[in-house]
Fold this sequence. Notes:
By secondary structure, the chain is an all-alpha fold. It is built from three helices and no strands. The chain has a domain at 9-39. It is 48% helix and 0% strand. The longest helix is centred in the middle third of the chain and has 14 residues, at 26-39. The protein starts with 8 loop residues before the first helix and ends in a 13-residue tail after the last helix.
Amino acid sequence: xxxxxxxxxxxxxxxxxxxxxxxxxxxxxxxxxxxxxxxxxxxxxxxxxxxxxxxxxxxxxxxxxxxxxxxxxxxxxxxxxx
Length: 82
């Protein structure tokens, strides 16, 4: 199959160099790389990070919710960023 892709110039130069070192055409090198990538296990979903958090007692969660309800978290303290 023939297709067109828009790729970063630096990325293409690196791929061409590696393909040449292995004696492969750029097309074949990209096929091999894509095959390896697709055969690798799926990365964890970005949203799965929440399951890695430690269990929190309900009392601590209530305290956090209380502090959050007081507000002020949507403002940027410019002094803190200096």
